[in-house]
Description:
The structure is a single chain. Helices cover 42% and strands 19% of the residues. It has 9 helices and 8 strands. It is an alpha+beta fold. The protein has a 6-stranded antiparallel β-sheet with strand order 5-4-3-8-7-6, sandwiched between helices. The protein has a two-stranded antiparallel ribbon with strand order 1-2. It has 2 domains: 2-75, Winged helix-like DNA-binding domain superfamily/Winged helix DNA-binding domain (Arc Repressor Mutant, subunit A), CATH 1.10.10; 81-238, Beta-Lactamase (2-Layer Sandwich), CATH 3.30.450.
Amino acid sequence: MAERIADRSTDYSAPALEKALDILELLAGEGGGLTQTEIAEAVGRNVSQIYRVLATLERRGYLTRAERSGRYVLSMALFDLAHRHPPLRGLVQLAAEPMRALADEIRQSCNLSVDDAGAVRVIAQAESPADFGYQVRVGARFPLEGTATGTVLAAGSADAAAAGFSPGDAAQLADGYLTRPDRLQAGITDVVVAVTGRNGETVAALTVPYIGTSYSTLGLEAVVAAARATASEISARLGGGGRMTSSVSLEV
């Protein structure tokens, strides 16, 4: 019986599907995209073997191709599918209550982001209960490089050791968080803490765009402590240990 099952499994192999999955998984780790030739080389096939697969993925909206460079990148289609997928819904649901409690405690907004094919994608937000605050739209996309949230997500990646963090950033990242003036909005300090999964991997980043004014009820240090506690709570709900896993070294 086992041999018959194995034979049936072989009979039902789908080479075109294998190619498509190879390409999607490859591009998921390439924020800048790849050309047709580079994709073929990376998946161990020639251009003619992947041409129709690329054309189909582009037609179905899973890939987009830059007109000038010809590079293929992942589109938002997989992100949309992920939003309908239970694991991501579970992450948002598990984080909702702690995020709401954090926003009420510090009277500032907070948001949750993930690495979306080399970019920061906001997947949840808790608004500030105060009369003022800074909010980020759910679904907003920002560069991974140059942002505090992107730095925390990158620090939890497999190639974190090659990221070249500054000494100041590395010291904080080693303790599992990062504070940095927002490069786009003056007067805002981003407080970012990694959210970890069951195996200690960074699965998301909790960010508080902190506004320090005379109306602020808590200072920056208290907000950092509250954000770290909230990230640990979310991590615990996910089965993680609440401490970011990274290859960041203090010897920068």
